[in-house]
Amino acid sequence: MEPLFAILVGLFFAAAIYLMLSKFSIRIMLGIAVLGNAVNLLLFTAGRLTREVPPIIAPNLDTLPNGAANPLPQALILTAIVISFSFLAFLLVLTYRAYQEIGTDNTDEMRVAEPVDPPLPPMGY
């Protein structure tokens, strides 16, 4: 099962990099969301994927039984999901506000503060 998830993580990373290299801010934002999901899936896969032994310590034991999934990556992923959702909501509001002000989501056209044809610097004194 882990090789399948490794391939899926690779595909997620490839799609995220492709989307983040776009010049449209909505695609960049979607790429960041896919990248967060890829990292979460990578952490989940690194914590072992087993259903046979649950990550619960029995009353008569001090540690997890052998072969149990590590519960720490699962807890980290739950925290990361909440943080990435709030970050995505912030990016969505920021992108929408920029679109309202400028009228485009193309990052090349968002250069309003820069002149289109800047004058050359002085060549001498």
Entry summary:
With 125 residues, the chain is mostly helical. It has helices at 2-20, 25-46, 71-102.
Kindly describe this structure.
With 125 residues, the chain is mainly alpha-helical. Helices cover 58% and strands 0% of the residues. It is built from three helices and no strands. It has helices at residues 2-20, 25-46, 71-102. α1 packs antiparallel against α2 (25-46) and α2 (25-46) packs antiparallel against α3 (71-102). The model has no long low-confidence stretch (mean pLDDT 86).
Would you spell out the secondary-structure blueprint of this structure?
Layout: H1 2-20, H2 25-46, H3 71-102
Helix pairs in contact: 1-2, 2-3
End-to-end distance: 70 Å
What summary fits the major beta sheet? Answer: none
Structural class: mainly alpha
Mean pLDDT: 86
Gyration radius (Cα, Å) is: 23 Å
Strand content: under 5%
> How many β-strand stretches?
0
Relevant terms:
125 residues, single chain, 58% helix, mainly alpha
